[in-house]
């Protein structure tokens, strides 16, 4: 009876597959990357919150991105680090926590797109309607856009996992470095056609609306810049748009790679590695891109470093 209860509510997780020789270097590398992700992203949030000169809609909306990156990395990386020194046959995880981890992982990926969509809208208003920017991007609008970015992700992912939770389970092994929706519904021997249809529809709608919104927005921005003879406006537009597009390309490339490799079972090891990279590469590169490319943030960071050097003398 105890064994039956254990097998029903506790799953075996594959985790990160590393050899005994490479476990310590992999642990140290992943730990250092995680520390950098947390320090850089949380540092950006604190900087924007404490500096009044950065209390503009663009930076307030941007705060959602490092917050999402920090939460996305925290949902996956610490568990990978803990399981790295546990034998693969003993890497157990409760079903409830596995569902929670899958929820966080999918919310991270979905919110990354919705946040970049509202940031693209902000850039469109700032460049195409500069005189009406303060009127359109009011505090109320910023709150609405923020609620939209997170609310849509919570709703869609909630339905996604709700369809999976309803299924009975006949297996208990998660063949993935961390829990996700696909790994969870594969534990069932029931018909999962609805899960596949909703998951595919969810992915297509998310990527389609994301790519479509960003493409349409930047086409309009490009048209405004071409028609305008103002070099200062074009230079500023190019700077802010390049930063946003660089972050967007990283998110798209990381996500699409994992989705593409998922269709080829023979490349399962590459797919598992790309799935981890999706939670590590964008959160690590995004603060570097925004910190170095955004003039106002870069100046604030330099001023803080300069003050610390002066105080130490």
Order of helices and strands: HEHHHEHHHEHHHHHH
User: Structural class, from secondary structure content?
Assistant: mainly alpha
Q: Please report which band the strand proportion falls in: under 5%, 5-15%, 15-25%, 25-35%, 35-45% or over 45%.
A: under 5%
Helix percentage: over 70%
- The count of helical stretches stands at 13
Q: How does the major sheet shape up?
A: 3 strands, mixed
Q: Numbering strands along the chain, what is their spatial order in the largest sheet? A: 2-1-3
Mean of residue pLDDT?
A: 83
Would you kindly provide a written description of the structure presented here, covering whatever features stand out?
The protein is mainly alpha-helical and 313 residues long. It has helices at 2-9, 20-50, 57-62, 64-83, 95-128, 133-136, 139-165, 181-185, 193-227, 231-262, 268-278, 281-293, 295-312; strands spanning 10-13, 92-94, 173-174. It has a three-stranded mixed β-sheet. The longest helix is centred in the last third of the chain and has 35 residues, at 193-227. The protein starts with a helix and ends with a helix. The model is unreliable at 1-6 (pLDDT under 50).
Give structural attributes.
13 helices; disordered N terminus; globular; 3 strands; 313 residues; three-stranded mixed sheet; mainly alpha
């Amino acid at each position: 009876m105890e064994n039956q209860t254990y097998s029903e509510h506790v799953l075996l997780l594959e985790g990160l597959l590393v050899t005994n020789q490479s476990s310590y270097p992999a642990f140290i590398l992943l730990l250092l990357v995680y520390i950098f992700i947390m320090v850089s992203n949380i540092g950006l949030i604190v900087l924007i919150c404490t500096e009044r000169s950065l209390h503009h809609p663009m930076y307030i909306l941007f705060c959602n991105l490092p917050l999402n990156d920090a939460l996305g990395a925290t949902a996956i990386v610490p568990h990978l680090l803990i399981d790295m020194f546990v034998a693969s046959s003993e890497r157990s995880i409760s079903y409830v926590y596995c569902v929670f981890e899958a929820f966080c992982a999918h919310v991270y990926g979905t919110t990354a797109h919705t946040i970049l969509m509202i940031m693209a809208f902000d850039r469109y208003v700032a460049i195409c309607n500069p005189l009406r920017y303060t009127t359109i991007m009011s505090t109320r609008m910023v709150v609405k856009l923020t609620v939209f970015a997170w609310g849509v992700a919570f709703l869609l992912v909630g339905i996604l996992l709700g369809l999976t939770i309803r299924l009975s389970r006949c297996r208990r092994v998660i063949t993935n470095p961390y829990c996700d929706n696909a790994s969870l519904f594969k534990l069932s021997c029931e018909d999962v056609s609805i899960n596949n249809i909703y998951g595919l529809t969810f992915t297509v709608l998310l990527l389609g609306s994301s790519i479509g919104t960003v493409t349409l927005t930047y086409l309009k921005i490009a048209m405004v810049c071409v028609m305008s003879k103002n070099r200062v406006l074009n230079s500023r537009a190019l700077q802010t748009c390049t930063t946003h597009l660089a972050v967007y390309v990283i998110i798209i490339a990381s996500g699409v790679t994992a989705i593409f490799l998922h269709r080829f079972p023979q490349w399962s090891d590459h797919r598992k590695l790309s799935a981890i990279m999706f939670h590590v590469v964008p959160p690590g590169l995004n603060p570097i891109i925004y910190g170095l490319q955004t003039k106002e943030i870069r100046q604030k960071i330099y001023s803080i470093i300069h003050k610390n050097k002066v105080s130490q003398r």
